[in-house]
Amino acid sequence: MTGELTAASNAALAPAPASESWYAVWTRNQHEPRVSEQLHRKRFEVFLPTVRVASRRRDRRLMLDQPLFPGYVFLRFAPSRASWVAVASTEGVVRVLGQGWDALQPVPDEQVEGVRRLVTQAEGARAVPWIRIGDRVRIVAGPLAGLEGLVRDRCRGRATFVVSVDLLQRSVGVELEAALLERC
What we know:
Layout: H1 2-13, E1 21-27, H2 32-41, E2 45-47, E3 50-56, E4 61-67, E5 72-77, H3 81-88, E6 93-96, E7 106-107, H4 109-121, E8 126-128, E9 136-139, E10 148-155, E11 158-165, E12 170-177, E13 181-183
Antiparallel strand pairs: 1-5, 1-6, 1-7, 2-5, 3-4, 8-12, 9-10, 9-13, 10-11, 11-12
């Protein structure tokens, strides 16, 4: 009877399982694809945003997929000591951004979804310097409608629309017709 009471009281005191969030995983230099693949094999949801970049070799030109944010991959999981150990023990992982397994810094879902939409649906998406100031805008038409971000610069009726990932202090941008943007 006492064992049942103890087990029930321990279950009541145990913290509820945390919900899944996106986290930024810092990787060793040029290990992003390898880390992404290994974490995927461990059954984690991984997002490695890439962009097509022209590369010159001695005898030819190639189009290569390069990480949009070199040194980082996004990982969606419910933080626990066991999941943190599984991630941290992955070859090529430096650390998950935060103060420890119990104080990880989540990346807002909207920012990860914004980056995902830009790299999959927008032509010419590219990394741009981290944005702190500028007008907050929303795209009103086209495949990116509803996406919110900042205007980096404006020239000849076009604007560079930027979605920033605050935790990484990195941004991704695409040039659009300024008429497609409205101030939030």
